[in-house]
Predict the structure.
Amino acid sequence: MSAIKRLFGILWSLMGVGIVPLVIMRAMEEIGKKPSEENWIFWSIVIVVLMPIISFSLITFGVFALKGEYDVIA
Amino acid sequence: MARNVTNVSQTEEVSSTRRVIAASSVGTLIEWYDFYIFGTLAKIISEQFFPKDNPTAALLATLATFAAGFVIRPFGALFFGRLGDLIGRKYTFLVTLVIMGGSTFAIGLVPGYKTIGFFAPAIVFVLRLLQGLALGGEYGGAATYVAEHSPDGQRGFWTSFIQTTATLGLFLALGVILIIRQTLGVETFADWGWRIPFILSALLVGVSVFIRMKMSESPMFAKMKKEGKTSANPLAESFKQKDNLKMVLIALLGATAGQGVVWYTGQFYALSFLQNTCNVEFVQSNMIISIALLIGTPFFVVFGALSDKIGRKYIMMAGMLVAVLSYGPIYNSMYDNANLKNKIEVVAKTTVETKEAVKGTDNITTTVTKKTFEDGTTYKETKKLTVPLDEAKKAELAAAGKLKPETKKETILPENIKYKMIGLVLIQVIFVTMVYGPIAAFLVEIFPTRIRYTSMSLPYHIGNGVFGGLVPLIATRLVEASKEPGYSNPLTNLINGVTGHIGTPAGQADPLAGLMYPILIASVSFVIGMLYISNKTNNMDVE
């Protein structure tokens, strides 16, 4: 079980890192297509609020899991 | 004799715990009521406080303000959580109640955009932030306070009463709004009647403050303070020490994020879906949600108590899993039951009425079309076209493509379909009770008393405020995006494949597109929760 937890740690970290360029590229594409106020508001909330929380927490959590910090908590 | 003394002592303890629960719950319920009347009246608030030129922008602006109310919650959690761990639970959540009540009352008094222009949305925005800040401090305090009064082995049961308050707060908000709207009439309510639910808050908060003033400090915190063992810096201790940070992360990713999206999908998004996607009439859609909430609420206590017996984890995870697997079919069924394309129209009963009137400098043409269907469904479409009398202005608006009628669609479902809708929403409320009923006990048990208020408040409010609170905004956006050419939604494709539907025609919104966000978040949360959370029951060291 510990091995699976650690292995998944890599996945969480990669998800945390991968989400940043994906979201930014999507935002640029959408705002570029239609630079409306509603588009700006929506993507600002996603990029400034949601994305950093998801990214930071997944990366940190993944690193902890990879290091075996959650092996014992079980 | 000794047995009698023990019995009396136990009876007194239960009675005291009940008083604590009642006093804490009433205040928390009122805070939720205050918070949710804003969300429930989002459309009216958008008309009152934001420019009307673009209705979608106005609605999104309101949702953004709504989101701001949610996004600010984690900051309230940090600010008041720290205070609660430093000076005590009782005074901290008394302050949050006063801030919440004051800002709600003030929203009811702010003049509209027509009267004071840009100041109107700006003031409402600030007041909404204050609401979010107060709520961020309230819940953690109430949950901690109740948990610290609860005996071992019954923490899930007692804290589940605090868990009912969010749903009952929403129920109260819907109920008060419906009663006032029905009493005053639709037009008066839209004009000024919507202010009453906000102003009423002052009275409710006054009563609650009075009750809370009489409460004593949490015994665990009081003992710790007396012994000088309270934390000197709860923030640093909660988030800089690896052992606590680890638990904050697991609470967020494995529990509250998934719980947050299930909560907001099952209650708020269900209402938004009924009103905006299924076009179910305002009163009927609110009745459907209210009845489902009322029937579902006792299940918070059922699952809270059950978590004392079989553990918190499996109940919460089961709730997430069934939500992920069944949202598609549930929402598909809701859509199909309200979809007029699936119904046979009684053409002989169709009526069209057109009225023209001059109001100020505009000519207003109102066309009302009423249709009846064989299953008893009735449909009313009101198109209101406002054309300036001034020819130059008229030509200018026509050139800009702004001479379009405002369209309002209202479907009233027959009784049998209404009950089916209540059933479909109730299933979602049951999922909510599974993920939410045991979560207060789960959160208080994974953090020590000295930093509990701070540590449990942050993951709770990020999970609910940010992940959950953004469900309406992101889901609305996903539905809009589904109109684009080349759009493909795996969930809709799967459902269409299973049910044999032909899918959404190009250019039309995919009604199920909004579900992708809660399903994705709840899925990740489920996997993390299953892998990394233990199935503790109640034997934690609360000290």
About this structure: The longest helix of chain A spans residues 2-33. Chain A has one domain: 2-66. Residues 2-66 of chain A form one domain.
